[in-house]
């Protein structure tokens, strides 16, 4: 899109505030009718500069999507409204908001700086490919282009993985490791892993928007030299024929079950597999799928609200 198009193209922004456990179904609904132009922001009225180590996000999020204004916009908006109406029978969903914006305005949409755990700071950044100056602390700074892909760290499924990655780094296991990040979204998991000692990351996503976003985010966060981005799923001919020390997959239970075999197949013996995006009631089905997919043991299960993450170790080659 040319700069002039970006200034004159018109988009319908639809946003809705709701409890975080409903972010995923609304994100799917919005993605479907907006060609994946969706982003999720922590709700609340607070000053990003004042976010300190004790900050814990509130339970509400705002989900935004952007519909190109063309002949189909009325139908797509209608489908979204039907979905939101059904959702409001299950959850406390506030009435949605609408406004017309230009492409420039929505791609500059921002999210507040957030802190995950004690050490990870995630900030929005413009797509100017320049790394902002970082204060000299032990904090791990991640810069993400807002408005382009899932994974700003304010969803429990991402937070569960990020906190586990910090634990892996603290135990020394992450150092020099090779990562496969399936369903990388914004690339936030790989970026943090690389910044905390991993030597190489391969980021894979089926969504073209995520693939574009992750390339920018790796550059902005200063880790593009050690990373590779592949569009598609796994198995994938564009991936190297190696076994990885870590495989991350924060997707959905259904996709995790479908991909259990290639996920396990990509891990080396002794390698760690982290899978997230699992609703509490689906944990046993996901565990069973992985235990049937290859030689591994489940070493940890973490939970936040309605969501769970599994940590597994591959026990021999497959
Ligand atoms: C919940 S987001 C996770 C993003 C990021 N990894 C995080 O932890 O925040 C899931 C991502 O998986 C991608 N995805 C869905 N199905 C996939 C598949 N079969 N193969 C690869 N990626 C997939 C989606 O496009 C989306 O970007």
TrEMBL record:
It comes from the Eukaryota. GO terms for cellular component: ribosome. One of its GO terms (biological process) is methylation. Keywords: Cytoplasm, Methyltransferase, Ribonucleoprotein, Ribosomal protein, S-adenosyl-L-methionine, Transferase. SUPFAM superfamilies: S-adenosyl-L-methionine-dependent methyltransferases. The keyword Transcription regulation does not apply. Signal peptide: none annotated. Transmembrane segments: none annotated. Pfam families: PrmA (PF06325). One of its GO terms (molecular function) is protein methyltransferase activity. Belongs to the methyltransferase superfamily. ETFBKMT family. Belongs to the methyltransferase superfamily. PrmA family. This is ETFB lysine methyltransferase. The lineage of its organism: Eukaryota, Metazoa, Porifera, Demospongiae, Heteroscleromorpha.
